[in-house]
Amino acid sequence: MFNNKEKYSQFIKSEAKRLGFLSCGISKAGFLEEEAPRLEHWLNNQMNGQMSYMENNFDKRLNPTLLVDDAKSVVSLLLNYYPSEFQNEDSYKISKYAYGQDYHFVIKEKLKELLFSIQSTIGEVSGRAFVDSAPVLDKAWAAKSGLGWIGKNSNLLTQKVGSFYFIAELIIDLELEYDHAVTDHCGSCTACIDSCPTQAIVAPHVVDGSKCISYFTIELKENIPPEMKGKFDDWAFGCDVCQDVCPWNRFSKAHNEPFFNPNPELLSMSKKDWKELTEETFKTVFKNSPLKRAKFDGLKRNVTFLK
């Protein structure tokens, strides 16, 4: 149907839009030279805490051609999750990305459909879909393909819609037309660094994962260190502070993905409800939710720690 890189690229971007993605950018698959020393420094300084999986597949993280044979292009995609409704003010807080159903499943389905569409229209194209659970440096690829710049809080930022979106990619063995990185628009702003409740942003663009509230409430499996008491600002699962204070998030718009709509019970829960949460209610309210990652016991531990 099509016969050149420009048309293939336009087709992929229009299909991404049809599937509900916020935006789509494409970059040439290859070794991430600038990221290699940064990742090495981050790991050597043990900023991954107990997330030992971050130490695995070091080479694959930096080179998509080791993940997909004969990879030529990385197609990066953004999917908005900014909600139209928020939690009750008298509540323990959870990250906005966890309001709805687990995004891994939602995005994987869209990516499968996108790959199928590429194969049906363009022909024999091989590739794999990735949604942050694989050794791919999502933000680096999204920035490389012009979807935004890496902010001082190490999140991908865009001028039009801020940062409340998921990043995913298709790595395929098809040559395409490649996009270019955009300029950084953080300027002299340090709102995210100044507002982090646990001072986890240790330098511009460097987050010490082992100090982040998201790490303590989701990744850490043992008891939360007592010296963190009183520093969590009522966050029971994840943390959005560095995004909430970012001036670019003034432009966030509500998503239109039904799977990300929150369970009304979650929005109305008070601190009292969180404290009295039973395993049965947890299973009902958070069915297919990202909160299952912390499990009922982990969530109870977090709420108890906040009391």
Automatic annotation (TrEMBL):
<feature type="binding site">
    <location>
        <position position="189"/>
    </location>
    <ligand>
        <name>[4Fe-4S] cluster 1</name>
    </ligand>
</feature>
<feature type="binding site">
    <location>
        <position position="196"/>
    </location>
    <ligand>
        <name>[4Fe-4S] cluster 2</name>
    </ligand>
</feature>
<feature type="binding site">
    <location>
        <position position="242"/>
    </location>
    <ligand>
        <name>[4Fe-4S] cluster 2</name>
    </ligand>
</feature>
<dbReference type="GO" id="GO:0005737">
    <property type="term" value="C:cytoplasm"/>
</dbReference>
<feature type="binding site">
    <location>
        <position position="221"/>
    </location>
    <ligand>
        <name>tRNA</name>
    </ligand>
</feature>
<keyword id="KW-0004">4Fe-4S</keyword>
<keyword id="KW-0963">Cytoplasm</keyword>
<comment type="similarity">
    <text>Belongs to the QueG family.</text>
</comment>
<feature type="binding site">
    <location>
        <position position="61"/>
    </location>
    <ligand>
        <name>cob(II)alamin</name>
    </ligand>
</feature>
<keyword id="KW-0819">tRNA processing</keyword>
<feature type="binding site">
    <location>
        <begin position="239"/>
        <end position="240"/>
    </location>
    <ligand>
        <name>cob(II)alamin</name>
    </ligand>
</feature>
<feature type="binding site">
    <location>
        <position position="239"/>
    </location>
    <ligand>
        <name>[4Fe-4S] cluster 2</name>
    </ligand>
</feature>
<keyword id="KW-0846">Cobalamin</keyword>
<comment type="pathway">
    <text>tRNA modification; tRNA-queuosine biosynthesis.</text>
</comment>
<comment type="subunit">
    <text>Monomer.</text>
</comment>
<feature type="domain" description="4Fe-4S ferredoxin-type">
    <location>
        <begin position="174"/>
        <end position="206"/>
    </location>
</feature>
<feature type="binding site">
    <location>
        <position position="192"/>
    </location>
    <ligand>
        <name>[4Fe-4S] cluster 1</name>
    </ligand>
</feature>
<dbReference type="Pfam" id="PF13484">
    <property type="entry name" value="Fer4_16"/>
</dbReference>
<feature type="binding site">
    <location>
        <position position="132"/>
    </location>
    <ligand>
        <name>cob(II)alamin</name>
    </ligand>
</feature>
<dbReference type="GO" id="GO:0031419">
    <property type="term" value="F:cobalamin binding"/>
</dbReference>
<dbReference type="GO" id="GO:0046872">
    <property type="term" value="F:metal ion binding"/>
</dbReference>
<dbReference type="GO" id="GO:0008616">
    <property type="term" value="P:tRNA queuosine(34) biosynthetic process"/>
</dbReference>
<keyword id="KW-0411">Iron-sulfur</keyword>
<dbReference type="InterPro" id="IPR017896">
    <property type="entry name" value="4Fe4S_Fe-S-bd"/>
</dbReference>
<feature type="binding site">
    <location>
        <position position="246"/>
    </location>
    <ligand>
        <name>[4Fe-4S] cluster 1</name>
    </ligand>
</feature>
<keyword id="KW-0560">Oxidoreductase</keyword>
<feature type="binding site">
    <location>
        <position position="153"/>
    </location>
    <ligand>
        <name>cob(II)alamin</name>
    </ligand>
</feature>
<feature type="active site" description="Proton donor">
    <location>
        <position position="132"/>
    </location>
</feature>
<dbReference type="InterPro" id="IPR013542">
    <property type="entry name" value="QueG_DUF1730"/>
</dbReference>
<dbReference type="InterPro" id="IPR017900">
    <property type="entry name" value="4Fe4S_Fe_S_CS"/>
</dbReference>
<protein>
    <recommendedName>
        <fullName>Epoxyqueuosine reductase</fullName>
        <ecNumber>1.17.99.6</ecNumber>
    </recommendedName>
</protein>
<feature type="binding site">
    <location>
        <position position="214"/>
    </location>
    <ligand>
        <name>cob(II)alamin</name>
    </ligand>
</feature>
<dbReference type="Pfam" id="PF08331">
    <property type="entry name" value="QueG_DUF1730"/>
</dbReference>
<feature type="binding site">
    <location>
        <position position="156"/>
    </location>
    <ligand>
        <name>cob(II)alamin</name>
    </ligand>
</feature>
<feature type="binding site">
    <location>
        <position position="167"/>
    </location>
    <ligand>
        <name>cob(II)alamin</name>
    </ligand>
</feature>
<dbReference type="InterPro" id="IPR004453">
    <property type="entry name" value="QueG"/>
</dbReference>
<dbReference type="GO" id="GO:0052693">
    <property type="term" value="F:epoxyqueuosine reductase activity"/>
</dbReference>
<keyword id="KW-0479">Metal-binding</keyword>
<feature type="binding site">
    <location>
        <position position="186"/>
    </location>
    <ligand>
        <name>[4Fe-4S] cluster 1</name>
    </ligand>
</feature>
<keyword id="KW-0671">Queuosine biosynthesis</keyword>
<comment type="function">
    <text>Catalyzes the conversion of epoxyqueuosine (oQ) to queuosine (Q), which is a hypermodified base found in the wobble positions of tRNA(Asp), tRNA(Asn), tRNA(His) and tRNA(Tyr).</text>
</comment>
<keyword id="KW-0170">Cobalt</keyword>
